[in-house]
Amino acid sequence: MKTTEQNSRYDNLEKLSTRELIEGINREDHCVADAVQATLPQVEKLVDGIVERVGKGGRIFYIGAGTSGRIGVVDASEIPPTYGVRGLFAGLIAGGPQAVFNAVEGAEDDAGGAWRDLSEYGPCREDTLIGIAASGTTPYVVGGLRRAREEGLLTACVVCNEGSPAAAEAEIPIVAVVGPEFVTGSTRMKAATAQKMILNMVSTATMIRLGRVKGSKMFDMQLSNAKLVDRGTRMIMEECGISDYEKAKAALLKYGSVRAAVSAIGAGTLEA
């Protein structure tokens, strides 16, 4: 039996108090970080491979179904506002965009579905495909990985069971074994948390390696609300030694990004 399908370590959940329930969930969540830590060598290999390929025009695609697919969509969608980069990451979910909010019957069982979805992007050998599946058995993911590897893409998977078909198809298998779920088989809990943590590392480390962070600051973030404009203004003040908040803000709004404003001030285009 797959680890993710094993019976919970707890029973009679319906008889527990709210405090007992949340303490049990929290206790199980502590297992996740250790499971993720064990995958770091594989995550490192994946990030290094991605960075090398992006330098040659490659992109990163996530594929998954259900909760796993949604996690990939979320991670990919956060890259443009956080790092100001579009078209580098994409999340594909079995059943298409409507599956983000509703289950699409049979979509995850279509072994050829992922490659058909990916084909709309014109995949090339410099691209990377990352399959996300808690069970490691989802046909949509397994089939996508198999075809992508045949086509020469870098392939990886993020799964939560040992010895899975997805891991066998991926060049870089990332296997985070988090153990049985608090609610038996509910992989939206520990397994999904582990997957999210791993994708956070992959995308964040990749963007840092590609020069999209300076110091610890998101120099290329999109200025989509007042909070981010304020953050960007203070970043410019700190980076350029400007004490006048309004002057720094004006520079930010004029040039549209922290990086561009700091560059203009450094070049003398805008006086500090």
What is the number of E strands?
A: 5
The dominant shape is globular
Largest β-sheet summary: 5 strands, parallel
Strands of the widest sheet, in order across it, are: 2-1-3-4-5
Computed CA radius of gyration, to the nearest angstrom: 21 Å
What are the secondary-structure elements, in order, as H or E? HHEHHEHEHEHEHHHH
Mean pLDDT: 94
Task: Report helical residue fraction.
Answer: 40-55%
SS element count, helices: 11
Low-confidence sequence ranges: none
How far is the first residue's CA from the last residue's CA? 65 Å
Give the SSE map:
Blueprint: H1 18-37, H2 40-54, E1 60-64, H3 66-77, H4 79-83, E2 89-93, H5 113-119, E3 128-133, H6 139-150, E4 154-159, H7 165-169, E5 172-175, H8 190-209, H9 226-240, H10 245-255, H11 258-266
Parallel strand pairs: 1-2, 1-3, 3-4, 4-5
Structure, explained:
Strands 2-1-3-4-5 form a five-stranded parallel beta sheet, sandwiched between helices. Helix 2 packs across helix 8, helix 9 packs parallel to helix 11 and helix 10 crosses helix 11. The protein has 272 residues and is of the alpha/beta class. The longest helix has 20 residues. 48% of the residues lie in helices and 10% in strands. It has eleven helices and five strands.
In short:
With 272 residues, the chain is of the alpha/beta class. The chain has helices spanning 18-37, 40-54, 66-77, 79-83, 113-119, 139-150, 165-169, 190-209, 226-240, 245-255, 258-266; strands spanning 60-64, 89-93, 128-133, 154-159, 172-175.
